[in-house]
Amino acid sequence: WSVSEEQLDPFSLVADELSIITKRLRSVVGSEVPKLASAAGYFFKAGVEGKMFRPMVLLLMATALNVPRHELPTDEVQETLTHKLRTRHQYIAEVTEMIHVASLIHDDVFDDADTRRGVGSLSFVMGNKLAVLSANFLLSRAFATLVTLKNTEVISLMATSIQNLVAGEIKQMTVTAEQRYSMECYMQKTYYKTASLVSNSCKAIALVADQTEEVAMLAFEYGKNLGLAFQLIDDILDFTGNSASLGKASLTDIKHGIITAPILFAIEEFPQLSTTVDRGFDNPANIDTVLEYLGKSHGIQRTMELAMKHANLAATAITSLPESNDVDVRKSRKALVNLTQKIITRNN
Ligand code: FPP
Ligand code: MG
Ligand code: MG
Predict the structure, then answer these.
(1) For ligand 1, which residues put their CB under 6 angstroms from it?
(2) Beta carbons within 10 angstroms of residue 306's beta carbon
């Protein structure tokens, strides 16, 4: 069996299905109010639909968990059920992307961000009012799709992920001086802001497939640790990336006084750095000072190590799944494991 030798590309395994989801996303955000339709559909247009990272993970997870739990009477029944289940999984992927996009639209309002995905942010192009309203519209549309699955636990998981997104954002907005320098607070906020949506939607994939609570927990753990690793790398790239490769301005966190892991680790080595951070960043010279300390410290390296720890935990969740000899199942699991390494080495 050679799949383990192959470098499976997570994206190409589900590329065809992702384009189905992209098309559906474009059609579900319609409205009889033209301005609302164009605002809600803004990030689903060709060229700005983004990496579709979450739908990709969810579709791979759906296949990775494809371990039949019941003997089925005929192959025909099996096939019909498999097809129906796949459609339900695609709906979860679609809903997750809508929630994600709604959170990005809100985020750009709070961050006064002019650009997103290499184009003008929705708030920049259409103004804050239309941005906020159309993001709310997207959330409502997402739930309209979600309820058709008729699974209350899944609805509850997705609702939790939105509550966590909001809580994470407000946590970040309202940190006290003490919380600002706490790694624990930072990780909690990071879970809320980035990992909760992935972890809860991964769990939803398992529940819709009628998997055991144990399998559902492994799916959740994968999403959680992948999300945490992803955000830790994102926080590194905010310092080391540039606007051309990121499609968005760098140093945004620090400029907004948001202290992330690289700085928290740097402060552990150079406690005097917190004095500069406390002064705020109205004066650009303070940013230079912080960057100087960061360069002298192991802040970036230690953040990278923490990201790797979570990436490995994510990979372990996949390898702990009940064994399967199905080629597709094994391919998807391998791709999910590869993905944990890919996000560590990404540079945009
Ligand atoms: C990006 O963070 C922002 C998020 C991942 C979520 C933000 C959540 C909200 C704004 C709460 C409202 C959400 C909903 C669904 C009602 P960032 O600013 O660190 O990253 P960026 O560099 O991509 O801007
Ligand atoms: Mg932002
Ligand atoms: Mg933000």
Answers:
(1) 99, 102-103, 106-107, 110-111, 113, 162, 165-166, 169, 193-194, 248, 252
(2) 17
